[in-house]
Amino acid sequence: AAPPDLPVPVALSTPPGLPCCLGCARSCSAWPVAPSSHSSPLPVPAAALSPFAATRRIGHPYQNRTPPKRKKPRTSFSRVQICELEKRFHRQKYLASAERATLAKALKMTDAQVKTWFQNRRTKWRRQTAEEREAERQQANRLMLHLQQEAFQKSLSQPLPQDPLCMHNSSLYALQNLQPWAEDNKVTSVSGVA
């Protein structure tokens, strides 16, 4: 049996100075190019050679999407219902399914409404407690800084206890009593030194 007909490789001829094929970085100086080892074995469509050739989309990209579902209107609960839900939440942050069903029946609400309310209320509770903890942390930091400043001011105003070793050595005595931050020990600049 004879082999099936295969497409015949065609060498593309390119202008001088351009690569002769997509996989070849060499520039061909000969025009037209004779089939060689580096020329493209298969014909390349003109659109693939042009960097600006792109398929154009027709229509808006979101045009084929399914239309969005309409939101359900917000459910509003009575003050009595909210008050009972809040009381229960204060005692218990999580409800078992049986407890939830009982509470929903007592408040004339659906099980899903009670479940959603508790989920939303827990989210709010977590956010509030996180904000409170952050405020407490900042207040503690401010108090700590204030106490540190007070302690530093006291240390400046109180004289240092005399070290017996420094009492007998005049250089050590001078170093111990040196307080560069004290107002009376400011160094005055000497001007007009010859």
TrEMBL record:
User: Which UniProt keyword terms apply here?
Assistant: Developmental protein, DNA-binding, Homeobox, Nucleus
Database matches in InterPro entries: HD, HD_metazoa, Homeobox_CS, Homeodomain-like_sf, TLX1/2/3
Top-level taxon of origin:
Eukaryota
- DNA-binding region per Swiss-Prot/TrEMBL record: 70-129
Instruction: Cite the residue spans of the region called Disordered.
Output: 58-77
Keyword Nucleus in record = yes
Chain ranges of the Homeobox domain: 68-128
Q: What is its main location?
A: nucleus
One GO term of the biological process aspect:
animal organ development
> Could you tell me where this protein is found in the cell?
Nucleus
For this record, the Gene Ontology CC terms, alphabetical, are:
nucleus
- GO MF term set: DNA-binding transcription factor activity, RNA polymerase II-specific; RNA polymerase II cis-regulatory region sequence-specific DNA binding
Biological role: Seems to be involved in the development of cranial sensory innervation from peripheral ganglia.
User: What name is this protein filed under?
Assistant: TLX3 protein
Q: Which species is this UniProt entry from?
A: Rostratula benghalensis
User: What gene is it encoded by?
Assistant: Tlx3_1
